[in-house]
Amino acid sequence: MSSPRRGVDLLVLFLLYVVPVGVAAVLLTRAGLGVLALALLSVEAVVAVSVWAVRRAPEPARPVQPSRRPWLVPLVMLGALGLLVLVAMVAAQTR
Predict the structure, then answer these.
(1) Tens digits of per-residue pLDDT, 34-85?
(2) What are phi and psi of 65, to 5 degrees?
(3) How far apart (Å, rounded) are the C-alpha atoms in residues 79 and 12?
């Protein structure tokens, strides 16, 4: 079960973070800036996932082993860059 303190924290998070970002996205969309609203939501989603990942309980220390897939992070970064370029190209074509 969750503690009352956690419920209050989630309510504050919702009222002070989620609602204003959602309202801003809706207003941007209504003003004809849907791509900017999508970018705002994407950035906020990355921030929220990053904060969630950092706030998780730490795992017990274990010996560091080399990655079996050292190519994965650079590939994901290149994919994200390609996606940004694609969104920019589509946004430029819609003007």
Answers:
(1) 999 999 999 988 888 887 777 776 777 777 787 788 888 889 999 999 999 9
(2) -115, 150
(3) 35
* pLDDT of 1 above 60: no
C-alpha of 75 from chain center? 19
> For 33, which DSSP code?
-
The DSSP element (H or E) to which 11 belongs, if any, is: helix 4-13
Residue type (1 letter), 16: L
Rounded CA-CA distance 38/74 in Å is: 24
Q: How far is CA 17 from the centre of its chain?
A: 13
Token digits for 91? 């946004």
- Evaluate whether 12 touches 3 at the Cβ level (below 8 Å): no
Single-letter residue type at 30 = R
Rg (CA), the chain: 19
**Could you tell me the end-to-end alpha-carbon distance of the chain, in angstroms, rounded to an integer?**
51
Q: What is the pTM of this model?
A: 0.52
